[in-house]
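Annex B, item 7. Sequence and C-alpha cells for protein A, then protein B.
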Amino acid sequence: MRRDTLDRQRPAADDSLTGMTSIAVTTWSLEQTSPSDLLPAAAPEGEVRIVRSEVPSPEFSRFLYASVGADIRWTDRLGWTYAQWQEYLERPGVETWVAYERGTPAGYVELEAQDEGVVEIVYFGLIRSFRGRGIGGHLLSYGTARAWDLADRWPGRPPTKRVWLHTCSKDGEYAMDNYLRRGFKLFDTKVEMEPDIPTPGPWPGAYRT
C-alpha cells in the first residue's frame, strides 16, 4: 500500500521531473463494511509478535516507511520534516502497529481514524527480506481487526463502521491478493499517469546491482 492521506492532492510541478518518463499507475480502493467481513490468515510459524508503537516517534516511523517502501517506490513522505512527522503521529486516532520477528521489525500497519466511524489503513507492508513467509497475511489480519476495534482505545470515537484502503500497481505483486483473501472488496479503480521515479531503496544504491 502506498500514498498518504495528507498528500492526496497532486503536488505542484517540480522542475526536477522535467523530461522524466511517465508510467500508467492503477490504484484500487477496497473496503470492509462489517467486522464479519474480515477473513483472518493463519499465524506464521516462529516467533512473530505485533505491538502498537504508542509513543509518537518520527525517527522510528520514518525508518519503517523508508524500509518497507524501499523497493516499491514509496516517496510521498521522504521529504517530510521532523515537525510534519510529529504532527501527524500525534493526531488522535492515528496508530502504528509493528510486526517483529525475534525482536527485529519486519513491517507495520498504520491506521487513521476518519469522520463518521471510518478508519483507513493508510500504510501496510513488510521489509523485503521478511516477505513470502506468511507474516504479511497475519499482520494485515491483525491490523484490520485493530481498525475495527479502534474506538475502544480512543474515548469519544464512534464505533468503526467501515475500514478501507488503497493499493496500486507499484506495490508488491501479492498485495492485492492478500487484501482480497482478508475479505476486502473492490469499490473503485483509477488509472493515472505518474513520473517514473526510481526505486529509492533504504539508502542510495541499495537493491541495485
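Protein B:
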Amino acid sequence: MSHPAAPQRTRPRTVLAMSGETRAAILAPEALDRLARVADLVPGLLVTDFGADDPAQRTGLHEAEVLFTGWGCPPLGTAALSAMPRLRAVVHAAGSVKHHITQDVWDRGIAVSTAATANAFPVAEYTVAAILFANKQILESARVYREARSRVNLLRRFPAVGNYRRTVGIVGASRIGRRVVELLRPYDLRVLVHDPYLDEDGARTLGVERAGLDALAARSDVVSIHAPELPATRHLFDAGRLALMRDGATLVNTARGSLVDTDALVKELVAGRLNAVLDHTEPEVLPADSPLYDLPNVLLTPHIAGSQGGELHRLADAAVDELERYAQGLPFAHAVDPRTLHQQA
C-alpha cells in the first residue's frame, strides 16, 4: 500500500527586515539559532531601508525567498519588491501587517503570515486582570484604605463589590476579544459581545450573548474595547455612548485611543461617574497636564498590554513556527487574508 509522499523540506533563503532594536528584543540567541536551522539566513544582514545603497543588501534581497519582518520594517512597495524577484513569503514576527504590507504584495501573490494570534495572549491577560480588578473596585478601595489608614467597613463602603454575576461587555470579536472571552469562562460573569460580523451561531459557539453596542454600553459593569482602528470605529465611544454607561462602570481600552472620544471620556472621569483602565489614548502619549495621569478612578498604562519583555519571545517562536511550515511545503497556520484585512487592526 502506497502512502502520500511527505512534504519536501527546504531551507528558504531568508532576510531579516526590521529595526535593530526589534531584532535585539525579539530574536534571543535561542530564536536566532532555531531560525538559522530552519532557514538559509543571510548572515549579518538586517534591512532597515529597502533603498539603501549597499551591495551586500542588494545581493541578499535579490536572492531572498522569504522576508522575516518585525516592527520597523519599511513598506514593501513597488520599488522594494522589484529588488526581490524571488520573494514568495513574508513572515511577520508581530501583529498588524498594515504598516508594511502594500497592495503590491498581494498583487504579486506573496503569502503573508502574522504573529497576531501570539500577540493577543498578553493583551487578553492584561484585559482579564483589569476586568476582575475593576469589579472588585481595587482602585477605589486602595484609595479609601490609603486615606483612612485604619480598618475600613467593607460592607458599608463597598456593598456591591465583586465579580459574581457581573456583566462584561466585549466590543469586537477579534483575536484578542475571543481570547478574553475564553479566559473569562471560569468566572461567574455574564458576557455580552458586539461585533458587526458576529452572528447568532457564532455567539453560541463563543458562549456569549450578542448585543447591540448601545445595549452593551448600558448593561455592562465593565466595557472592554477590542475593535480595530478603522474610519468607521473612530470615536465609537463618543459622549452619547459614554453617557449610556452605568454610573460606576469601567471602560477598558487596550485597542486604539481613537476609538474613544478623549475629551468626552475626560469629562466623565473628572466628574467621577465612570472609571477607566487605559493602555491606549488619543494622542498615544497624553500631554503632561492631562488629568488622566492623576485621577484616582483611572489606571493609565504606557501601551504595555501587548507583548513586552519575555513575551516578545513568543512572537519569535510563533514566526519561526510559520517559517518552518513554509520550509516543509505546508500552508501558514496564521496566514493573512487580504479579503478580510480591512476588518482587522
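Comment on protein B: Residues 1-6 have pLDDT under 50 and may be disordered.
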